[in-house]
TrEMBL record, chain A:
This is Sugar ABC transporter permease. NCBIfam families: PRK11618.1 (NF008630). CDD domains: TM_PBP1_transp_AraH_like (cd06579). Its main location: membrane. InterPro entries: ABC_transp_permease.
From TrEMBL, chain B:
This is Sugar ABC transporter ATP-binding protein. Pfam families: ABC_tran. InterPro entries: AAA+_ATPase, ABC_carbohydrate_import_ATPase, ABC_transporter-like_ATP-bd, ABC_transporter-like_CS, P-loop_NTPase. It comes from Micromonospora qiuiae. Gene3D superfamilies: P-loop containing nucleotide triphosphate hydrolases.
Automatic annotation (TrEMBL), chain C:
This is Sugar ABC transporter permease. The chain crosses the membrane at residues 16-34, 54-72, 79-99, 105-125, 137-156, 176-196, 226-245, 257-274, 281-303, 309-329. It comes from Micromonospora qiuiae. It is found in: Cell membrane. It comes from the Bacteria.
Length: 329, 513, 357
């Protein structure tokens, strides 16, 4: 019948829209890198890029977990504290003489368990994710100082190996093992989000939770799963951080959740849920990393400019998302 | 066709919610290869019956038999896996996902746990081709019209080997052509042996499509009838029961002399008012004491007209004059200043403030127009609220309960009171009687007559033609977002003629002024 | 008998019952642990004692919570209050530190006015983002939460500004009528906000906007203006709280002034019974919530537990209060009778089947 009139416009005008935020982030990243290269000679050294990954590997992993949560329209404020708690617990257990493998397993279990409990509270008691994960944040941070008020150094052989091992080329450029782990997490997450039912359900719930329920999707299971995944990613991030610093400190990663949320948003994921990509999150983390590197290279700019610039970028991106109308609700 | 054994039998179904008995001892049968209409007024229990069947709610008493087996689904997924699929009135799809994914999500073809996207797209195209729909299945569902979304939802429903397809008011947001397309698909599916449970408010559609009709009233079964043996009038009587008499009492009030009203100065004149994408430019004049009815199907632009009259949406062209003074209506505040009130059709989203009390909800508009610095004195509040609770017989008669605890009809009355308190000169009522019980409906209709007798102008919108004709001096007919005719409601005008106008979109019926 | 039961139920059902109960239990526990807890002594014409300290120390949180209550009532949230505290504190201290006479009253008031002015601009910024541009409040205020810390450090050029100004110090530590001045400031602000909202129709209009923004607009309320206004009020409250925080230590630290106060304030509001979804707000509940949080902190200090570990207790209190107030939890608890806690993960199907039982 009148089938042709039912479509809305040619496909070339519609398709890119979902990808526009990611493309803009990519462009921004290239521009910033270009500025860096044009201003500072050392910036063009490939190791600068590797260092961005080395310094932000743990942030990337945590941001991947946050992407899952934000895609469902939720938020997880507990990530920074869980990262610290994982590092703290690892350091403490290693200090008390447990073998590295056992410590690793225990440390990797704590985060997901907390995430699972938070997910249950959010889903079954209909509590706001904001408040529940805030409580989780308090709990995890409290556990840190409960374990120890002071930083605990890590001297375990496995940890120091992981920390110092360099994978590099003959010219001296290298990355740490943490970077490879972070990449592995990114690839697994990207696969899960686009090729598994769990991943697709995450998008569906973010798009319209009511519909998802009526379409018979396992909303409860998925919702709890994303907070568990975020907990797992935070735990991995905590392990990576302890590789990086070789210690567990009770006040490390304070306020990290803000950087993570900023990275996810700058990466083009919409905070109301349902739209965004892991690849965007990677770009978002890189943008934050490059800003820091630029400010370090400059030397005359003070560290607080990082925060102001991140705030400014957040504003620009949110405004931009609003303008191109990425809001299905 | 229906002499085989029923594919679905529901026996003695009862279901209660706290304080409400939604279903009481209801029986229902569905045969393969039939379209079976489930009829009843709002609140009769139609949607509860559907939700009980698909496992959204558990049942208190009774049994459901599908084929040979007794079943009790614990959710829509299980129901659809067993062959009972539902398409809801409000399209329940995920707007951000592609068409193909919306059809298959939850049961995507997979290999080693990975979704096979190529296969998903291929099968989606195939399935939509069966429904004669040729669209880009990779585009997000949000980029298509409601009608297409409805088709996508049906495609999702029939992809599983559906034995029973439930269509819950699928036509309410479709235009005539789209409805015809839907019917064609329904017939095709019926001929394939699928049993279709069809819920609609449009009587014509029931008589056009349904093989049999089951009527519910107040949660109880009235009866099951072959369509051919149940004349329309009998059906209406069975649906609304004896209270029909109440409504007919009003008839005498109407059909007053329009000429007398038109002698005076018009209260509001709009000319060539329009808004792109909402409603084509139209002109309409409303006099003091006049009731203008807006007739047309859902989605024909009725609500859009009302919103332009109130400044809820900004018109992008045309002129407005209130009491002879020209000037645009840019927002509700300006409209209220000029003595206009507006009860939205969407009581929940645009009407009541559920948290606030009856009192606060009633005085809200008046308070808003006074500004927050001049609160209405408590004593004055009490007077006003008491007066309108009594006048509109609002139950419970307690001004300090949250309005969310009231029934739909009483909430509607509270909204009416909110505007009556502001003593408007024009009251716009968009579907004021939808979803409320018959008693409250009659009271609201009587009120409209009283108000217009008192000199208030009323713009009255309703999906029910009878109601519009009963109350209006003049009927403006909407079709496809265009005002196609204005009819003086004299003896020559009846439901058939308005229906024809809606159907044909004829311009010739323009009122002779 | 029946009457007594009814009364019991009314008290139990009162929205302030649980917050008050929690506060009383905490005070009792403290008194048992340390019998001198509630004692107040007169020294130098001023009252001293733990209860007075709790009141004094909770004053900034009460202030922030007042503004936050209004914001949350409109269905929003203001994450930037901590940064606003830091910025306003830093500006006030910077101005005073550069003045020739730090004890000059005119200097101090000019400093306060300037800082307050800047805070109002920040509030207006949030208000515009939320009400005009229509950005989700949590994100809109996140921008200032992140950037504001940087701005505060920018103002102070990364230093901790230490001042030696008697009048400014008085905001945090001064006394008036034997009681700390801070208590009066918080009380005054509470009365002012209460009068502003409950003596006029503003409170109802705010609740109306929070309960249903579109319906409010159609009833003739200029919803956008109201939403804008609450963010400005919130920033103003935060600024005064920022003065108090910096006055307490006579120095402004862009990094740490008001750190995480937004979270405590949101908690206080939620404990006080205002729903994060917007609608009805309870100023008295928020004040109680702030007192509960401060009592908890003080208790933990008194028990010689590190302040960070106090977060553990805070987590427990938050979850407990939220659960008690969550309708879903209450319904479950009631159905199962008293004593048996609900299982950790009941499936929704189970819940549904239990409804008819």
């Amino acid at each position: 019948m009148t089938t042709t009139s039912l479509t809305t416009g040619p496909s070339w005008a519609r398709l890119p829209r979902r990808h526009v935020p990611v493309l803009v982030t990519l462009a921004l990243l290239l521009v910033m890198y270009g500025i860096g290269v044009s201003q500072y000679r050392a910036f063009s050294n490939i190791q600068v890029i590797f260092n961005v990954f080395i310094d932000n590997g743990f942030l990337l992993v945590v941001a991947v977990g946050m992407t899952f949560v934000i895609l469902t329209g939720g938020i997880d404020l507990s990530v920074g504290s869980v990262v610290a708690m994982t590092a703290m617990v690892s350091a403490w257990l290693l200090q008390s003489g447990l073998p590295a493998l056992v410590v690793l397993v225990i440390a990797l279990l704590i985060g997901p368990t907390l995430g699972f409990l938070m997910g249950c509270a959010i889903h079954f008691f209909d509590l706001q994710p904001f408040i529940v994960t805030l409580a989780g944040m308090f709990f995890a941070r409290g556990m840190c100082t409960f374990i120890s008020d002071a930083s605990i150094p890590i001297t375990d052989g496995f940890w120091t190996t992981m920390s110092q091992y360099r994978i590099g080329d003959p010219r001296g450029n290298f990355v740490s093992i943490s970077v490879l782990i972070a990449f592995a997490v990114v690839l697994v997450a990207a696969y899960v989000l686009s090729y598994t039912r769990l991943g697709r359900n995450v998008y569906a719930i973010g798009g319209n939770p009511q519909s998802a329920l009526l379409m018979g999707l396992p909303v409860a299971r998925t919702r709890i799963a994303v907070y568990t995944i975020s907990g797992l990613c935070s735990a991995i991030g905590g392990i990576l951080l302890s590789f990086y610093t070789l210690s567990g400190a009770p006040l490390i990663a304070v306020g990290m959740e803000l950087d993570v949320i900023a990275a996810v948003v700058i990466g083009g994921t919409v905070l109301t849920g349902g739209s965004g990509y892991i690849f965007g999150t990677v770009l978002g983390v890189l943008v934050l990393g490059v800003i820091q590197t630029l400010i370090t290279f400059d030397g005359s700019l003070n560290s607080w400019w990082t925060k102001i610039v991140i705030g400014g970028l957040l504003f620009a991106f949110i405004l931009f998302q609003r303008l191109i109308g990425i809001r299905y609700k | 066709m229906t002499d085989s054994r029923p594919v679905l039998t529901m026996t003695g179904i009862s279901k209660s919610f706290p304080g409400v008995r939604a279903l009481h001892n209801v029986d229902f049968r569905l045969f393969p290869g039939e379209v079976h209409a489930l009829m009843g007024e709002n609140g009769a229990g139609k949607s509860t019956l559907i939700k009980v069947l698909t496992g959204v709610y558990g049942i208190d008493e009774g049994t459901i038999t599908l084929g040979e087996e007794q079943v009790a689904f614990n959710g829509p997924m299980q129901a659809s896996a067993a062959g009972v699929s539902t398409v809801y009135q409000e399209v329940n799809l995920c707007p951000n996902l592609s068409v193909a994914e919306n059809i298959f999500i939850g049961r995507e073809p997979r290999r080693f746990g990975a979704v096979r996207w190529g296969e998903v797209r291929r099968r989606a195209r195939q399935l939509l081709a069966r429904l004669d729909l040729d669209i880009d299945v990779t585009a997000p569902v949000a980029s298509y019209s409601l009608a297409v979304q409805q088709m996508v939802a049906i495609a999702r429903a029939i992809d599983v080997q559906a034995r029973v397809l439930i269509l819950d008011e699928p036509t309410s947001s479709l235009d005539a052509g789209e409805v015809e397309q839907l019917f064609r698909i329904m017939r095709q599916l019926r001929d394939e042996g699928i049993a279709i449970l069809f819920v609609t408010h449009f009587l014509d559609q029931v008589y056009g499509m349904a093989d049999r009709i089951t009527v519910l009233r107040n949660g109880t079964l009235v009866g099951e009838y072959p369509t051919a043996e149940l004349p329309q009038l009998a059906l209406v009587e069975k649906m609304i029961g004896k209270e029909l008499d109440v409504l007919e009492g009003i008839e005498e009030h109407s059909r007053r002399d329009l000429a007398a009203l038109e002698g005076g100065t018009p209260f509001m004149e709009v000319s060539q008012l329009g808004r792109k994408g909402a409603v084509a430019p139209f002109s309409l004049t409303i006099h003091a004491g006049e009731v203008v009815g807006l007739a047309g199907l859902l989605g024909s632009g009725r609500t859009e007209v009302a919103r332009l009259f109130f400044g809820a949406d900004r018109a992008d062209r045309g002129e407005v004059a209130v009491s002879g003074k020209p000037g645009g209506l840019r927002n509700p505040v300006q409209a209220i200043e000029r003595g206009i009130g507006f009860c939205s059709e969407n009581r929940r989203a645009e009407g009541i403030i559920p948290d606030l009390t009856v009192r606060e909800n009633m005085i809200l508009a008046m308070q808003a127009s006074r500004g927050w610095l001049r609160p209405i004195p408590r004593r004055r509040q009490d007077e006003l609220v008491e007066q309108y609770i009594k006048a509109l017989s609002i139950r419970p008669a307690n001004p300090d309960v949250p309005v969310r605890n009231l029934s739909g009809g009483n909430q509607q009355k509270v909204l009416l009171a909110r505007w009556l308190i502001t003593e408007p000169r024009l009251l716009i009522l968009d579907e004021p009687t939808r979803g409320i019980d018959v008693g409250a409906k009659a009271e609201i209709q009587k009120l409209v007559v009283q108000l217009s007798d008192g000199g208030m102008a009323v713009l009255f919108i309703s999906a029910e033609l009878e109601e519009v004709l009963r109350l209006s001096h003049k009927v403006a007919v909407m079709r496809d977002r265009e005002m196609v005719a204005q009819l003086n409601n004299d003896d020559t005008v009846n439901a058939d003629r308005v229906m024809q106008t809606i159907a044909s979109g004829s311009q010739r019926e323009e009122a002779d002024k | 008998m029946n009457n007594a039961k009814d009364r019991y139920r009314t008290i139990l059902g009162h929205r302030l019952f649980w917050p008050v109960a929690v506060l009383v239990v905490m005070l009792l526990a403290n008194t048992i642990y340390r019998p001198g807890f509630l004692s107040i002594e007169v020294n130098n014409g001023h009252l001293y004692g733990t209860p007075i300290d709790i009141l004094r120390l909770s004053a900034p949180l009460i202030l922030v919570a007042l503004g936050m209550t209004l914001v949350i009532s409109t269905g929003g949230i203001d994450l930037s209050v901590g940064s606003t505290c830091a910025i306003s504190g830093a500006i006030a201290c910077l101005y005073i530190s550069q003045a020739p006479d730090q004890n000059n009253l005119v200097t101090v008031f000019t400093a306060l006015a300037m800082a307050l002015g800047v805070a109002l601009v920040l509030g207006a910024w949030n208000g515009v983002l939320v009400s005009v541009i229509g950005i989700q409040p949590i994100i809109a205020t996140l921008i200032l939460m992140v950037a504001g810390r940087g701005l505060a450090q920018l103002v102070a050029e990364g230093q901790i500004i230490t001042i030696n100004s008697g009048p400014f110090r008085a905001i945090g530590l001064g006394h008036f009528l034997t009681l700390p001045l801070a208590i009066f400031i918080a009380l005054g602000a509470a009365l002012l906000v209460a009068a502003l909202t409950r003596r006029t129709a503003l409170g109802m209009i705010v609740e109306s906007v929070g309960g249903n923004r579109e319906a409010s607009r159609l009833a003739g309320i200029r919803s956008a203006r109201i939403v804008f206004l609450v963010y400005v009020v919130s920033a103003a409250c935060a600024a005064v709280a920022g003065f108090m925080m910096t006055a307490n230590v006579s120095s402004a630290d862009g990094n740490n002034t008001g750190l995480w106060v937004e979270l405590d304030a949101i908690l206080a509001v939620v404990i006080g019974g205002t729903s994060l979804a917007g609608g009805r707000f309870y100023l008295s509940g928020s004040i109680l919530g702030a007192l509960i949080i401060q009592t908890l902190t003080t208790t933990v200090y008194a028990m010689n537990i590190s302040p960070q570990t106090a977060l553990l207790f805070k987590a427990v209190v938050v979850i407990a209060v939220c659960l008690i107030q969550a309708p879903a939890f209450r319904a479950k608890f009631r159905r199962r009778g008293r004593g048996t806690p609900p299982p950790a993960t009941p499936s929704p199907q189970q819940q549904k089947q239990e409804v008819p039982a």
